[in-house]
Amino acid sequence: MINSLSYAVWDTDERRGLSLKERVEMFSERETTLYLGDLEELARYDVFFLSFSDSGEPVLNMARNVRKTGEDVYMLLVSEPKCDVSKFFRPSIRPGGVLFRPLQNTHLREMLHEVVSEMKRLTQGDDISAFVFKSEGVSYRIPFRDILFFEANNKKVQIHTPGQELGYYDSLENLAASLPDNFVRCHRSYMVNIQKVEEFRSCEMELKLTGGYRIPLSRSQKNTIKSALLKRNEETEGAQ
């Protein structure tokens, strides 16, 4: 499983970031994404390395942005021993571990194996919490709560999450049977996560989702979506 996880490295120092990227790729068959500088638009990854030598506010903001990409993303800090990493242990960041330089391959391997063990423990017997699929021989696992909508496109199903799009060969008809009830067909080419709908735009025949996404709404599915939104709102009010 360690080989199938998706990894990303963020570092303002290109040489240091490249070095960490190469080390991570020693333990994975997939290429690691390298981010440099102050970026806000981030895709979701299973493991995100945040590498820094100064734990100032820009780095803390980046850590917050990483956490926003997914609640179960494992954020691993790579720091100089002199840095105060206690700043990162707050509700809006929640790192999964800390590695100090000089970085040892044995320590990196142990950390990644622990990530895999913890991921298996949390998901064991709870497959409905995530959507699992294969694309080009690589297995992916995306928490349902991170998925905005599914889109049918040229015999493939595209999975849309904030900042990321992945696809595999299938149809929405086959997909529907494996999804929880909060995923509802809104159009012949779209299936939406009803929890992510912010606005029902009847005149425009579209739905506005979290993050500003807009997807079409067919007339044949209009009442189905209305009922699903009403049920969602009633359950939300009942839980308060």
Describe this structure in words.
This protein has 240 residues and is α/β, with parallel strands linked by helices. It folds into two domains: 7-123, Response regulator (Rossmann fold, 3-Layer(aba) Sandwich), CATH 3.40.50.2300; 128-239, LytTr DNA-binding domain (OB fold (Dihydrolipoamide Acetyltransferase, E2P)). The protein has helices spanning 14-25, 57-68, 105-123, 172-176, 222-239, and strands at 7-10, 33-35, 47-52, 74-79, 97-100, 130-135, 138-143, 149-153, 156-161, 164-169, 183-187, 190-193, 197-201, 206-209, 214-216. The strands form four sheets. The chain has a five-stranded parallel beta sheet, sandwiched between helices. It has a five-stranded antiparallel beta sheet with strand order 10-9-8-12-11. It has a three-stranded antiparallel beta sheet with strand order 13-14-15, with no helix packed on it.
Topology of helices and strands:
Layout: E1 7-10, H1 14-25, E2 33-35, E3 47-52, H2 57-68, E4 74-79, E5 97-100, H3 105-123, E6 130-135, E7 138-143, E8 149-153, E9 156-161, E10 164-169, H4 172-176, E11 183-187, E12 190-193, E13 197-201, E14 206-209, E15 214-216, H5 222-239
Parallel strand pairs: 1-2, 1-3, 3-4, 4-5
Antiparallel strand pairs: 6-7, 8-9, 8-12, 9-10, 11-12, 13-14, 14-15
